[in-house]
Input
Amino acid sequence: MLMQPEKIFGDRVGSAEKLSDYIIALNGAAERTLSAESSPNPAAGFIVVAVRPGGKSKVWIDFSPAVPLALEARLLGSLQAVTPVSVNGGVIVFAINASLWDAAPTSQQSPQVAEWQQAVKQAGKPLEVGDIVDRVWSSEKNR
Output
């Protein structure tokens, strides 16, 4: 799910094939991490990914029910270790709709990342998703 207009992706990524290859690599990393889980519990939601110029990426997870913190940490680590697609001119943001261990698909239309909701609340006005990501990412000291 593209979380910004398609034109932004076209301008910043340039190639749908490159973005597709990155998403496939993310899916592979997630599958490897999740397959090692010894006590899986069904969950559904989104893996949200932002990529900045310079090869920087940030991932958020929005599952219901929430996955255990240790699993979330392993999953985030494996996803953020994937070399991101090259982007120019600003951040891109997309989400992967995921169902874990035969969970029913989420009924949410889009991710509800808690840090993002807090950033919008602090801004006191609606924000474009790229602006939200920049605010949250900056507040985390560019991790």
Remarks:
- The chain is about 40% helix and 20% strand.
- The beta strands are 43-52, 56-64, 92-100.
- Residues 6-139 form one domain.
- The chain has a mean pLDDT of 89.
